[in-house]
Amino acid sequence: TKPTFLALPFLPVVDGDFLPDQVEVLLNTTNLPKKELMLGLVKNEGTYFLVYGMPGFNMTGDNLISRNDFLEGVLMAMIDDSDISRETTIFQYTDWNDVKNRTKNRDLLGNLVGDQLFFCPVLEFAQRYSQHGGKTYMYLFDHQSSVNPWPEWMGVMHGYEIEFIFGMPLESSLGYTKNEIAMSKKFMKHWANFARHGKPDIEGVAWPAFSAENQVYITLNSNYPERKRRMKAKECQFWNKLLPQIQKMSSDMLTCLNASENTHHTNYLFLVILLAISLIY
C-alpha cells in the first residue's frame, strides 16, 4: 500500500438549516445561504504537517531535506494524482538553479503542501462564495509568536492565530510581549464586531470586503493592518486551473491511447508533457 499524507474532509455538518446541502453542491446552485463570512490563512500553512510523516522530517532541528526526500514528499502529498500532474508540480516547486539546496527543498515542500491543502482551496471557496453575493472578509496572519516552542523554520503555522483571537497573551504568566498583548486585544475587537454586526471593522480600521474581482485581504500582525490583493495568485492559478486541465488531458489521452494497440506509452507521456509546458508558458 502506498503511503498517504493528509486527508482533510470538510467538517461542518449538513444540518438542513444553516447548511441545507453539501457546500460544493450549493456553490453550483442559487440556494447558497448568503451569510457574512470571515476567513483567513496563516503565512506558513504547510509546515506544521510536514513533521507528521513526511520523509526526512521530525519535530526538532532544522529538517534540511535531500532532493530524494523532497520527491518522496511530493508523491505522498499527491498519491492519487497522475504521474504527469506530479511531474508538473515538481517543476513548479523546484528552484532549478539550486536543486540540491536542502533548505530550499524543505521550504518549497512546505509551500507545496500549504498551497495544495489550504491556500488555494480556501481562496477558491472565497471567490465562489462572494460571487453568490455573500459578504466575505479575508485575512492573512503573518506574526510568529514569541512563545512558540516549534523550530524557527516552521514560521507562522496553521492555526496559530487562534491563541491571539481568544486572548491567551493577556495571561501574564505565559510570557507574551507587550506588542502581542496589544495585538491580541485588537484581534478580539475585530472578531467581536464581526459577531455582533457582520463586519470586522474597528475604530480606525475599515476592513474591505473580499470579492472575486478585487480579491482584497488584510494582513494581521502587530502592525497596522495592511490591505493587499490577490493572495497566492500564481500558485492558485496552478492548483485550481492548470493542474485540473492537465489531469483531465492526461486521463483523456490515456483513454484514447489504451484503445490503440500501436501507440507506445512513451509517446503519450511526451505529448502530455508538451501540452503541460505549453499551458505553463
UniProtKB/TrEMBL annotation:
Main location: secreted
Primary role: Esterase with broad substrate specificity. Contributes to the inactivation of the neurotransmitter acetylcholine. Can degrade neurotoxic organophosphate esters.
Domain Carboxylesterase type B positions: 5-239
Gene Ontology molecular-function annotations: acetylcholinesterase activity
Highest taxon in the source lineage: Eukaryota
Keywords, alphabetical: Disulfide bond, Glycoprotein, Hydrolase, Phosphoprotein, Secreted, Serine esterase
E.C. code: 3.1.1.8
Species the sequence originates in: Nothobranchius korthausae
Protein name: Cholinesterase
Compartments in which it is found: Secreted
SUPFAM superfamilies xrefs: alpha/beta-Hydrolases (SSF53474)
Record has Kinase as a keyword: no
GO biological process, one term: acetylcholine catabolic process
SUBUNIT field: Homotetramer; disulfide-linked. Dimer of dimers.
Family the UniProt entry places it in: Belongs to the type-B carboxylesterase/lipase family.
